[in-house]
Specification:
Low-confidence stretches: 102-107, 247-253
Number of strands: 21
Strand content: 15-25%
CATH topology of the largest domain: Nucleotidyltransferase, domain 5
Largest sheet: 8 strands, mixed
Shape: flat
Distance between the termini: 74 Å
Radius of gyration: 31 Å
CATH architecture of the largest domain: 2-Layer Sandwich
CATH class of the largest domain: Alpha Beta
Helix content: 40-55%
């Protein structure tokens, strides 16, 4: 049996220190009690989630309540927006979070209804509270709801006409010719057969897909055995329609119940992602992390988790597991010790490849969000020893990003014995746009030290520069001796071919750099500081460049300053939508009257 380790499950605290994924997916909001209160989907998660971090005077009371209630957030990243849409609806239907049911804009969300009192029930959508119907929803996305209705009508041939029209038909309508209705209005189907179709449609919309398929298979076999091949073919086509929808969507699985487990690691930590599939639909996603930084191989870590996970789920009748790596021989023996194939490890293949990839993307995203930096304290002590410093309580690291000397940005990231202190991170726009990293670093560090001294704050014991001896010497020349007496400076550079396995630390008092690849603890800290500094600087630079690009065209219009530019971009959601706006659309923006609207419209039209 693998070594016994403890693994902790973590969710992210929802605040502005999180860098949200720039990909499609589903997000789940939790309250203080870690209950799911809202589930949503987004084409780009970062854009959607950022909007929940700030209040807006146009927010409804319920949206204000939702924002105040959010404490934690989880994501499930998907390949496409349509995958996110289907997954969102599946999770909402299963979990029924309170804000998904109660949350409204200026109108109610629509729902699917099947009339229950009529002898030949109809399917329809409605935003009202309908009597004598079976309701499915509400749906936050009308497109998803219409897709469901079309599928149900194609497979089960349920009518969608009003009762008045139904009662006065003398021949089948075009819906019958399109094979979307069985024409019960003119007795093309018996009452008993139609009732069964309605029953199957209800089950399908309730998520009982396998039960529906079993009934269809039984009927197909029955008619085939009786040599009623025309009817057998009808049921075969229904099965094909449902299966084709399953094949089209990555978030569907051929397995009724399945646990998809993937492990990913970087030089700092390890994350294990578990996706739970129930009745062929993804129901939840969780990330786990080793509580101690044990020096174990990926295989040993995964085996320890797998045995722990199986042991915690033995109350289940059967456990089907799909993994991104093969379990060890010892773990396989542990699994085989259970009787009646209670635990089954499934092989990777083309049909479940998408689920593995989804689970792996969750684990990779989890690596970016975990706050497990227990090891940093010992590594800082080792760095202090190697630099011959009495102690290091605070480290600040600087990096520069720009595009050919334009939109130059500097980042300052901060570390102490507990790891990164993201609330102390700082960003600077370099005043002089020029392709000169030396000058930019000098300006950023000088401004930072001046700011700390003006507020009578405490300077860090160590400042780290991303670069070599040239960058280090250039910065030192611009600082006065008092600062150099209080703060130590080092630069970090990569080895030959920019390989971080051979990192060097450059010192102010020695021409000989320190090679750190032989010291795993020190190398791990140095790489974390440099990579975090570079990541934060690049993130800010991209946002600044994107904002500059969006605003640049507006800046050229006379009379439209920064205040109105922000309002216009916020109202229309981007420059492309703004360009397509009419004069009347533009006047809906606060502060934009007929005159300004005409100027903006003509500027884009010209």
């Amino acid at each position: 049996m693998a070594k016994q380790l403890q693994f902790s499950k973590k969710v992210s605290i929802f605040n502005n220190t999180i860098e949200f994924p720039e990909s499609p997916g589903v997000y789940k909001f939790y309250n203080d009690s870690e209950d799911i209160i809202y589930i949503g989907k987004a084409k780009i998660l970062s854009n959607r989630l950022s909007s929940y971090l700030s209040s807006n005077k146009d927010d409804t009371r319920k949206l204000q309540r939702l924002k105040k209630s959010i404490k934690f957030v989880e994501f499930i990243i998907t390949d496409t927006e349509s995958d996110a849409l289907l997954l969102e609806q599946s999770l909402i239907r299963k979990i029924k979070p309170p804000f998904n049911i109660q949350f409204r804009d200026d109108k109610s969300y629509p729902a699917i209804h099947i009339s229950s009192k009529h002898e030949f029930p109809a399917i329809f959508m409605s935003r009202k509270k309908e009597k004598n119907t079976t309701k499915f929803g509400p749906f936050a996305n009308v497109g998803a709801m219409k897709e469901n209705i079309n599928l149900v009508r194609s497979v089960f041939k349920i009518r969608n006409c009003k009762d008045l029209i139904f009662n006065n038909r003398s021949r089948p309508c075009i819906e019958y010719q399109l094979e979307k209705c069985s024409a019960p209005c003119v007795s093309e189907i018996s009452k008993i057969e139609y009732a069964q179709e309605v029953k199957d449609a209800n089950k399908f919309l309730s998520g009982e897909t396998e039960s529906v398929l079993k009934n269809l298979y039984d009927k197909m076999d029955k008619y085939s055995q009786n040599k009623d091949y025309e009817r057998a073919i009808l049921y075969r086509e229904k099965i094909k329609s449902i299966r084709s929808i399953e094949r089209k969507q990555n978030i569907l699985s051929n397995f009724k119940n399945l646990d998809v487990i993937s492990i990913k690691t970087n030089k700092i930590q390890t994350c294990i992602s578990v996706i739970i599939v129930e009745d062929g639909w993804i129901q939840s996603s969780s990330n786990y992390y080793p509580e101690k930084n044990e020096p174990l191989s990926i295989s040993d870590l995964f085996s320890a988790f797998l045995e722990n996970y199986i042991s915690m789920n033995l109350d289940r009748k059967k456990i089907n597991i799909l993994c991104n790596i093969k379990p060890s021989v010892d773990t396989q023996d542990f699994i085989n010790s259970f009787r009646s194939n209670k635990v089954k490890i499934l092989s990777k293949n083309s049909s479940n490849k998408a689920l593995i990839e989804l689970s792996e993307s969750q684990a990779e995203d989890g690596l970016l969000r975990n706050r497990n930096f227990i090891w940093v304290e010992d590594s800082i002590k080792e760095l202090s020893r190697r630099l011959e410093l009495r102690s290091i309580n605070r480290i600040e690291a600087f990096d520069i990003s720009h595009t050919s000397g334009k939109e130059v940005s500097a980042s300052c990231v901060v570390f102490d014995n507990s790891g990164p202190r993201k609330k102390d991170y700082r960003l600077m726009n370099i005043k002089e746009n020029q392709n000169n990293d030396y000058a930019a670093l000098g300006e950023a560090i000088s401004r930072r030290i001046k700011n700390i001294n003006s507020k009578k704050g405490k300077l860090p014991e160590l400042i780290v520069i991303d670069g070599g001896r040239g960058q280090l010497n250039s910065v030192i020349k611009k600082l006065n001796k008092n600062v150099l007496n209080e703060v130590s400076f080092i630069a970090i550079s990569k080895g030959p071919n920019r390989n971080e396995k051979y990192d060097f630390i450059h010192l102010t008092h020695s021409s000989k750099p320190i090679e750190i690849n032989s010291n795993r603890s020190l190398a791990k800290l140095v790489q974390l500081i440099r990579n975090e500094s570079h990541r934060f600087s690049l993130f800010h630079h991209r946002r600044r460049r994107k904002k500059s690009f969006m605003n640049s065209e507006l800046d050229l219009i006379d009379g439209i300053g920064q205040k109105y530019s922000k309002r216009l971009i916020r109202h229309f959601g981007g420059i492309l939508n703004l360009k397509q706006a009419s004069i009347s659309d533009l006047q809906k923006v606060n502060g934009i009257g007929p005159k300004k609207a005409k100027i903006i419209f003509e500027s884009f039209m010209g």
